[in-house]
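Agenda item 2: guanosine-5'-monophosphate complex prediction
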Amino acid sequence: MAGILFLISAPSGSGKSTLVNQLRSLVDGLDFSISYTTRAPRGSEQDGREYHFISREQFVAMVERGDFLEHAEVFGNFYGTPRTSLTEAAQHGRDLLLDIDVQGAEQVRQKVPDAVSVFVLPPNPEVLEMRLRNRSRAEGAVTEDVIKRRLAKARTEIENYRQYRYILVNNILDKAVEELTAIVKCERLKRGAVENGSAKGDLQHLADIAERCRQGNVIGLEDVLRSFGLGAQMRLPNQQLFEHGGE
Ligand code: ADP
Ligand code: 5GP
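Presented output:
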């Protein structure tokens, strides 16, 4: 596609939808791909707004027709990105954002190697659990079993963080929104976009924020990974990489 394809993934409950909604209100020219799913709508979700909610039979028919750029099974439901999202964004000269899981992101990276990928992490498992519980209270529909499954899955999803170009730790919401916005704007600038009305100093500030979120530059990432029981990638003084502290 002509515009930039942004991929964003995160363990469920990390705050990805919250971040994406705020990003969309802050930047122009960015389309959001509405996925198809076989899961039931939650809370205030509306068909055609958050997702296109369809039956398994309809989903299988779409797979067979080759309608999806990628599709995957997540928590027992199917999710897929329609190819039409890309063609429409390209036709209108807009960038496109896909909110997809780690399996879907892997499929898209194979097909669109210059896609810009962002992985959102919660600061630790306790905060993730609290966010999942708060959200389920607000929606009134999620069971204890679902929360337990989502927490268990978080760790295996986080293991894939190295496949992403940028890493965002969503601790303080405003800071994470600022970082995600900086990533989008900087990737546009790299491809020659012009930020109207921005002074040189502002652009440098944006570039600095985005650079701090790049894979390998994120301060405090080791602590986050360790809190999920995962080994962190450490940089030795001689710049070799080594693994430490697994389980
Ligand atoms: P996801 O889309 O990753 O599943 P949501 O965006 O639905 O997650 O967020 C899960 C819950 O956490 C929501 O109740 C949301 O309001 C809350 N939340 C998101 N980001 C933050 C944050 N930085 N600080 C506190 N609460 C947050
Ligand atoms: P939820 O049901 O909580 O909205 O989403 C569950 C998971 O499915 C999230 O990780 C979300 O990113 C992912 N997801 C949503 N749409 C798609 C899609 O079109 N393809 C893939 N592979 N994953 C998706």
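Discussion summary: The chain has one domain: 5-33+94-244.
Owner for follow-up: CH.
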